[in-house]
Design a protein that fits this description.
The structure is a homodimer. The first copy, chain A, is an alpha/beta fold. Chain A contains 13 helices and eleven strands.
Chain lengths: 383, 383
Amino acid sequence: MRDVSVVGIGQTQVKEHWDKSLRQLATSAVLNAMKDAHVDHADALYVGNMLSGELTGQENLGALIADEVGLRGIEALKVEAACGGGGGALHIGYLAVASGQFDVVIVTGAEKLTESSNCNTTASLAMAADADYETVHGISFVALNALLMRRYMYEYDLVPEDFAAFSLNAHANAANNPYAMFRAPITLEQYKHARSVADPISVLDSSPVGDGAAALVLMPTASLNGNRARAVKIAASTVATDSLALHARRDPLWLSAVELSSQKAYAQAGVTPKDIDVFEAHDAFSIMSVMSLEAAGFAERGRGAYLGREGEITPQGKVPISTMGGLKARGHPVGATGVYQAAEAVTQLRGEAGKNQVPNARVAMTQSLGGVAANAATHIFVN
Amino acid sequence: MRDVSVVGIGQTQVKEHWDKSLRQLATSAVLNAMKDAHVDHADALYVGNMLSGELTGQENLGALIADEVGLRGIEALKVEAACGGGGGALHIGYLAVASGQFDVVIVTGAEKLTESSNCNTTASLAMAADADYETVHGISFVALNALLMRRYMYEYDLVPEDFAAFSLNAHANAANNPYAMFRAPITLEQYKHARSVADPISVLDSSPVGDGAAALVLMPTASLNGNRARAVKIAASTVATDSLALHARRDPLWLSAVELSSQKAYAQAGVTPKDIDVFEAHDAFSIMSVMSLEAAGFAERGRGAYLGREGEITPQGKVPISTMGGLKARGHPVGATGVYQAAEAVTQLRGEAGKNQVPNARVAMTQSLGGVAANAATHIFVN
């Protein structure tokens, strides 16, 4: 297999885009990525998206977006893995270049959640859980995460404030990211008094619904020339799965898919957690950050929250996460999020992260989860 | 890139499966394919599906089906390209094996259209068209095809009866296929007096809505041993696109995506249309068969219908299509259909098609279309 590099990135701001359609958001991100990569053509396009059908009445996004960006005719497909579709699309794009099939591949993630013609967004997001055994009983997606957080606090004797650092770090970092949805830092007092969504998860433990698109241009590393100084190599690209339903897991407090895809990625890249300078975790809820840190090997079991309390998750810490705001504050346009994470990892490795720059960042890892980590796509980028 | 072979196939009957859920249908097809291939493990699973979210409230089918078939943990993703998602999933599975990444890959297509918790099926199927510029005006998917058929008849001076052979051939062949939805042949009289759906398309020009799942097991050709005598090689796997909206096409009566993906496939396999012994076309409507035969190079422009009238599309003809019933009579569980076509091509090349066997079939082509051929996935199989 050939080595693959990211040679261009593009992002739109995540927010409630009442004046832009899904195709317009995707087009903007893709054209920016192509401009950044100095390419005017591509062989294939893969789109990460979860809910275009349910919420905007539009399927076949691959062909639609290929046409909109002026590339009518090229291979184009949509990849879906619930909230992890962005990471899934990147993985397929990686395979398409690594295989030798294509020399220029565009990966985009695009999602429009705030303008729905058909159903409501909360009900649609619950389609990431098991329809026959979980959502049929009326439980929402945040409520499933609340069950985990409650049990986690009981097992490890924690209180909600022990999770505060994850939200504070995300909002502090988003303040410096022009593509982020929430650009104001928050205080511990605000966190403590935040409105409850599904006890014990408050609104400041939850990533927001938003619209947005991000894009990447991939090429074979060997084909890069002197003009590609800002290219970043993809050292690993892996996907692993778990049961959708929480009750079917041997140990609901352990994210097996995260562990499995992380371990495969470490092996592929030849690194260990200690080598990772930036970890863009899937912080859809504070509890997901904590459990991801453990399953990915950055903290002992039951000790993930302590990394936050001890200040180790900030850009200056030992395991910087959510360095551009994360899902929590950059925003979480579900199927697009995995592509935003990759664009942010590239930004860090290019040394272009401004006030959020992680010093001497050389190896970055992103993790895109679908459902309650029923699907985990892990990517490791090396400068 | 490595050569890839299909080493196992599995199918459920297409019908209204009121007693089986989407996951049960997929599980049945996958387990049958694994049994046929004599494998008890796989590295990855790709699922073709269009409407699981809209109609059954379930996304993240990749992880769900991997778990259901006893392969929890493996890489799994859903691929969507409207009605062409089955062909798209097969293409991704092909890339995953060809790249050298995986040695055993399962491709499944699964769709449940007749039992909807959320929306109605006709409205959901219209999501294959352009939501902002076509369906917003209220046009259904069959009506879009009716516009094409009306214009085609005007341009080439044809009447509806000129299309009859496509429906008669499909139903005659389905009679011998245990997996088909409609197993009774039809007569010309029945065709002439069939109820209109969207003038000039009648119910006997339209493929039926149905539930079903099919599956394939793919392995590197070089890894096959003496036990794999029934393996069939994938000589080409291509995808091409067109605009979703008909009004945006330079020539709405020419299926560019079909032409493009066919030409790429012929080049990859080193064959011409003359070498194709079996062509499983995407006969969602009679007009689609006719236009596909032209764009794929089997008939001159405006002459596709004549292949039917002259008896050349039957298993004994020059260009056998819909040899196991096609979308028209086997049934069209949209995202699953492309995988059924591949399973049928393999059946023909194995010489196991019974009364529908195409004599000396050695090269088979399948074509899976999304929207009005906004997406075309073409595969060529060689025995």
